[in-house]
Amino acid sequence: MPKFKSARIHDQTLTRGAGGELHQTAEDGFDTLTTAQGGPVADDQNALKIGARGPTLIEDFHFREKMFHFDHERIPERVVHARGYGAHGFFETYEPLIEFTRADIFQRAGEITPVFVRFSTVAGSKGSADLARDVRGFAVKFYTQEGNWDLVGNNIPVFFIQDAIKFPDIIHAVKPEPDRGFPQAQSAHDNFWDFISLTPESMNMIMWVMSDRAIPRSFRFMEGFGVHTFRLLDENDKSTFVKFIWKPKLGMQSVMWNEAVKINGADPDFHRRDLWNAIQAGDFPEWELCLQLFDQDFADSFDFDVLDPTKLIPEELIKPIPVGRLVLDRMPDNFFAETEQVAFMTQNVPPGIDFSDDPLLQGRNFSYLDTQLKRLGSPNFTHIPVNAPKCPFAHFQQDGHMAMRNPKGRVNYQPNSHGLGPREDPQRGHRSHATPPEGPKQRLRPESFADHYSQARQFYLSQTAVEQKHIASALVFELAKCELPVIRERMIAHLLNIDGPLAETVAEKLGIKMLPDPADAAVAPVDLPESPALSILSNPPESFAGRKVGALICDGVDAALVQELADALASEGAMLEVIAPKIGGARAADGSLIPAMHMVDGGPSVLFDAVALILTPEGAERLAGDVAARDFVSDAFAHCKFIAHTQGATALLEAVGIEPTADEGLLPLDLGTCADFVATCRQIRLWARERALKP
Ligand code: HDE
To answer: Is 418 a catalytic residue?
Structure first.
């Protein structure tokens, strides 16, 4: 390459043009700038004009090419899941699963398969904020030795609708309303709740979306689900049903709604920054892939239809078996090339993995190919490196826009008598399960899909009291944003079928005096056993690893204490970020400089899992007069976070009406106590405080 490269010189001399603009030239040691056609460019600061003051000439091919390319930089954003963030990594198979599947990825213990994963929100556009109340996409592309396998899942195991034909309706309803073009990335509006209240099959999903699952602390702390029932096929095409579940190694964690709203203002990129920072720090996020395996007998005996995507199989009924681990260890070099252009498709399954007749999955298998052609603009989207298989491949597809890999030779068809080119392989190739067809062609929802409330009730009753309260508050918040009273009432009628006290609480907070009759239920709801696996708080993390403490410091503090806290967090696998009145940091009592990552206005406590107030009495006094510092403390308290504080911090605590010994979440901090503070933080939040603040 660079034909025009000149020697690098250390003393860069920038020359000024006639108008004062700065020129950096190849003579300064840079590569020569060229057009996309490779022609060297003499001047990239000024378009070609007649005279110094114009007009500009259309003859300027460099200007024309540069502007043309810029004008075409955007491709259509995904119609759903537009806001997303991806990373590379690998999947490691634990043990062979030969008994269940002939999929190559599950044949050898220790097999390493490269993956690309993209997390996303559903409703918001590409530039929307990360902490919307929404389902998160959890899409994994495995580059297996027998073709790409895309497990295009969500962080919630059920879905809003049972039949793919309703997908455009639910998505239209949740997206900005078409006349006004808002609200962005929010379900709290009439159209969404109108559709939901008219669609009883969405009730199970609604309970999940109103729960804290829909406001995760980070992608690293979420579960993932393939949602649909799939099939595994062994060497003899014997079928086993399977549901796919991802379990995060760091455990599950969500934020509070009031916190989510503030995070969106403080750092709209909170989730993507979290993933970026973790991977850059070498703290690679990890999940275990677990399988729920079952046969036709279980399917026949289960209370619900395993083809109904609004239902899950409780983990207490079929225990998920860990079969491998996913590690994300590398960010893309270029966001557009990979995260934006990656094309996931449910129909990408390797031999040994097959579909069930779930009507949502069947519809998805049709939709995803269309979407890729629309977005990427060419049937050759598999030529883009992130979408190309990493195993050998050979076919006779050719030509088309932007064809990058073009076959050599004369033969582009088979059979042929030249003995050239690839041939099919009945043994290795993908074979579909020979499911016999059932019944006549018709547009009908099976009766086995008709119970819309029992699992919604099971989910709600399986939550802890704190989580139930969050669900009620979310319903109140969302429905309070609806302008049409009839929508609120219709929802209360549904909630009465899920849980009476929940319906009454929500109705009371919405000012509905007369409870409506319960909604007509096609099938009377039944009481199912509670499933503790459905709750986040009943399954707490084992440690504080992967979390972050924000320490608010000022001049004159003990540098050794800050260091001790940083060390205690590091040995837990957690991190300390320092916040100071000035971004330059603070001067410790011993004269050393403690660098700060945030200044107090830019580092609100919502960005951290717990906080430490390491202050001198004078510093606390000064910060007590600063609204950002006061919010730092009062938000941390309201969000039930653990707050460690030096004695000197008292004035700041008292400025926001918090007694330094108000509850056991306020911990005195001194040399020798940091490890205890970190150990306490393993509880993540002091939920008893929420009860005390808002009984
Ligand atoms: Fe998707 N979905 N979806 N979806 N979906 C898309 O494909 C669609 C559904 C999911 O990070 C689109 O490439 C239909 C369930 C994820 O790039 C589109 C139906 C689940 C992603 C599409 C569903 C998902 C998508 C838009 C109902 C969880 C983002 C862009 C039948 C199991 C993938 C694209 C990424 C993306 C269609 C329902 C997950 C339009 C028709 C259920 C994670 O093809």
So the answer is: no
